[in-house]
Amino acid sequence: MEERTKLDRTFKPHWVWAIALGSSIGWGCFVLPAEWIGTAGPLGAIIGLLIGALLMMVISVSYGYMIEKYPVSGGEFAYAYKGFGRNHAFICGWFLTLGYISIVALNASAFSLLFKFTVPSIVKVGYLYEVSGWDVYLGEIVIASLSLLVFAYFNIRGSQMSGRLQFIFCVILVAGVVLLAVSMALNPATEFSNLNPLFKPGIPAISGILAIVAIAPWAFVGFDNIPQAAEEFNFSPKKAFGLIIWSLIFAGSLYALMIVVTSLSIPWQQLLAGKPVWGTGEVVSGSLGIIGMIMLAISLCMGVFTGLNGFIVSSSRLMFAMARAKILPSIFAKVHPKYGTPYVGVLFTTFVCLFAPWFGRQALLWVVDMASIGVTIAYFYTCFAAFRLMKKDPEATTVKRGVSMAGAVLGVAFAALLLVPGSPAQLSMPSLIALAVWVGLGGIFYLINQKEFSSIPKAELDYYILGHKPKEKKTSKKRVWLPRETSV
After folding, report:
1. 30, 222, 326, 333: least buried by Cβ within 10 Å?
2. What are the contacts of 195-203 at 24+ separation with CB within 8 A?
3. Global pTM?
4. Is residue 482 packed enough to be buried (19+ CB in 10 Å), middle (13-18) or exposed (0-12)?
């Protein structure tokens, strides 16, 4: 049996909190508030997102339990293995890998999108072609590619550098959003009456709220990055649950503040009637001028940077764990000889994502929408595995077991919202086609590697995935009884 490669324990608690929060708050917090308001009204959107945060907290109970029991790289991949065996671990890891990598690519394209809105003369250079109505320019490809390469460098240089940067970016992000909200609220040209009507007219308030709740897995994806870094905690894994809860509280609050910011300047129905390209940007620019746009741009950049960094951390750790379990090629389990990071996973993630900007943002959104299935699958596996383990754990209360089962049900419900025809979050046909392709590729990959993967003894796989070293069998020494000497 090969020696199990391990990662150094370098991540501090506030760095891990920043990974969860920064990964949850991305470009959508700053670009999509107008769309959410149009779906449910300002208060409806806020209620929907806060309910979504509460539902994620239900799911996070299982995450806290599993991290404490199994603080290893791989997170949900390891939990699926512990709860259901190697085949389910492969399914969970396969979908989650795509989810993480596609979100890295989306954040890189969001960075170039910011330039497209603010300084289009820089981005709209070197027109190449059109993909699904999206004009692809060489300028945006260069900007997205440079952002990927910079954060790949940070992650290869070490967990300490990426963790410290993540925390700094998160502090700037939170400060920027709070400053924007205060500036808009105190501006003489803004009024809270512009939030009326609080709910979207013409539909039941509950319908609008549920439509927003349906996007919760996408809006808050990122708190589940914490278990991917669990092997590198330099603190007790028991703290992980508290860090997840605080990250969700901050994320829900930031989403709510940006909805208020977007609604304060002019009546929101009037804003949407103008069909703005970037509703939040137009409102902030009109009320606070260039200073407001600078604050908004910095906050958006921090959201994109923390998403890029956080999901590069997670994707590389997930591939590291899968390679350690012999599912992926062993090269992904190598660590950098100087910095101790899973650098092959970082390089692979970056390499794949460098192709994404060439396909245009619309095509990338199809892949990301499809990858939402991977996140909901991970939620289900984590919660149901925790429920099964809690049944055998005398310290786990009935309430805790019930919450874990509720989390598993939520995972199924979120998947149904994406797949059931007519649901408010149903995947588009291009996304469903992309999902079918990914499932087919996974099936082919599994069939090719199934024989080798299945031949690994369970005790050996337990060691590679969970860190449980097989107990050595004691060799019993037979005693030789000699006749007792008698004195004559």
Report:
1. 326
2. 195/42, 195/43, 195/260, 195/263, 195/264, 195/268, 196/267, 197/41, 197/269, 198/41, 198/42, 198/43, 198/44, 199/40, 199/41, 199/43, 199/44, 200/38, 200/39, 200/40, 200/41, 200/44, 201/41
3. 0.89
4. exposed
Tell me the residue type at 30: F
* Strand pairing report for 134-137 and 127-131: antiparallel
- Interatomic CA distance for residues 57 and 388, integer angstroms: 19
- DSSP sequence for 117-138: HH-HHHHS-SEEEEETTEEEEH
β-sheet bridge partners, residue 137: 127
Joined together, the tokens standing for residue 345 give 């996973």
In sequence order, the 6+-apart residues with CB closer than 8 A to the CB of 209 are 40, 44, 47, 48, 51
Quickly list H helices, 157-239.
159-186, 205-213, 216-219
Provide the token pair at 69: 């029991």
Cβ neighbours around 454 below 10 Å, total:
10
Q: Which pair of tokens denotes residue 230? A: 């669990």
Distance set, CA 250 to CA 65, 176, 357 (Å): 21, 13, 31
- State pLDDT tens for residues 187-224: 988 899 999 999 999 889 998 898 888 887 788 888 88
Q: In 3-state terms, what secondary structure has residue 11?
A: strand
Residue with tokens 């149901």: 384
Q: What is the pLDDT of residues 38-58, one digit of tens each?
A: 989 999 999 999 999 999 999
- DSSP letter at 190 equals -
Among candidate residues 196, 237, 200, 178, the one with its CA nearest the CA of residue 45: 200
Residue with tokens 């199934």: 450
- Record the tokens describing residue 102, joined without a space: 């596609």
108 and 357 in contact (C-beta within 8 Å)?
yes
Residue 157 DSSP label: T
Which residues contact residue 258 at a Cβ distance below 8 angstroms, ignoring those fewer than 6 apart? 29, 30, 33, 177, 180, 181, 280
180 contacts 172 by C-beta, under 8 angstroms: no
Average pLDDT of the segment spanning 114-137: 82
Amino acid at 408: A
For 255-293, the pLDDT digits (tens) are: 999 999 999 988 999 988 888 878 888 899 888 999 999
Q: Which of 408, 409, 407, 427 is nearest to 417 (CA)?
A: 427
Q: How many residues does the chain have?
A: 488
Tokens, residue 331: 């090269």
Burial of 239 (0-12, 13-18, 19+ CB in 10 A): middle
CA distances (Å), origin 413, targets 54, 115, 296, 406: 15, 37, 35, 10
Q: Judge contact between 194 and 267, C-beta under 8 A.
A: yes
